[in-house]
Amino acid sequence: MKILIIGAGVGGTTLAALLEGRGHEVDLIERSPDFAKSGYALSIWPLGSRVLIGLGLIKQFRQIANPLGTYHLRNGKGDAINTYRLADKISVHGDAGTLSRKSLLELLRSKLSDTRLRMNTSITALTQTSASVSVTFADGRQSDYDLVVGADGIHSKTRELIAGHVPLHETGWGGWIWWADNGVIPVDDVTEYWGAGRFLGLYPCKEQLCVFAGGPIGQMDIKTHRAADIRDHFKPIAAALPSVFDALPDDTNEIFFWKLDDVRSAVWSEGRVVLLGDAATAFLPTAGVGASNAMESAAVLADELLRVEANTVTRALRLYELRHRKRVQAAQTESRNLAKVMLVSSTPLAWARDELMKHYPVDKFVADILKSLEQPI
Ligand SMILES: Cc1cc2nc3c(=O)[nH]c(=O)nc-3n(C[C@H](O)[C@H](O)[C@H](O)COP(=O)(O)OP(=O)(O)OC[C@H]3O[C@@H](n4cnc5c(N)ncnc54)[C@H](O)[C@@H]3O)c2cc1C
């Protein structure tokens, strides 16, 4: 089959890697001009790392990711709330590790040899007949495909073209990401500070420590005196972590403000066009499972595509959706529920949450992830 994958992110690149050597002609296009930026840290759970086993990449993953060992929960002042030994619970199901998005994409791209990757490329229109999809690229060129996969992320153009406008689910929170040298926590420790109207996450990757500092958008989306204001917003923690906050880029440096939104599309496919990953069901970073779900979805779609030819491809798309939509949406609901607990603005509510979390057992903390690992896909 002649297949176009739109978006060389986590889901699109995983799918391209899985389709290698299967006799397909695959074009993978990416809107960004290059892969230079590290992006942010991704924690990959066995949902995703199991796919790397199938791709023969698990040994390399272990070399480039920090194992996910212990999760430390602290309050907005920096006091310890609870400590969860994640490794004890998760390792029986496979690998869990933290790495930069850039490293994960590099790893996945190492499997691409027949795939034609084109950077700086996007689409403007999709026109379907029962036999093919005609794609118009942003530079005006046109090409016909048997299958088009929209793996173009939360603000998917493909989704807009097949499903129209789908509103974002907005938490009203957002935050800044930057990278600092890690002299502050062990490499297999993830540490999060859940405060009232503030959230700070420290995710150690091999290169550096990824820092996410979030809060209600009105208080956090600061354009001038950004570094000083963010430091002020996180005062007690910033004082305890000077090297982390010293690395915060000042106003003159380009730095992206992430809104904590997600999206749930009612339409996953239309004819020969199908959505994958965040384009279909985007994730808040609260549970840290969006990338793993995108990888698992890619594995399900690739599996279904093994059993069809160009004339029956829509059948594979229907089965992919039947197998995976409910599971992905359940995981998304869990990450939304977690957001209600993590992203709290009121001081009394944050205090009550902290008291509850002091006694919250590890089995409950990882219950949703463990449940999903026990279920068939
Ligand atoms: C701050 C943050 C932290 C996160 N932490 C975690 C975590 O710890 N663990 C986890 O599992 N998940 C995490 N996630 C979620 C995770 O990043 C996503 O769920 C995952 O990347 C989804 O994969 P995807 O392939 O669908 O989209 P993406 O990886 O976003 O890839 C989409 C790609 O499509 C490209 N693109 C967009 N539009 C077009 C177009 N029109 N034409 C061509 N290309 C296009 C984009 O440039 C991008 O490369 C986090 C997300 C954020 C924002």
Automatic annotation (TrEMBL):
Transmembrane segments: none annotated. Keywords: Monooxygenase, Oxidoreductase. One of its GO terms (molecular function) is monooxygenase activity. Residues 2-332 form the FAD-binding domain. InterPro entries: FAD-bd, FAD/NAD-bd_sf, FAD_aromatic-hydroxylase. It holds the Pfam family FAD_binding_3. This is FAD-dependent monooxygenase. SUPFAM superfamilies: FAD/NAD(P)-binding domain. PANTHER family: OXIDOREDUCTASE-RELATED. Signal peptide: none annotated.
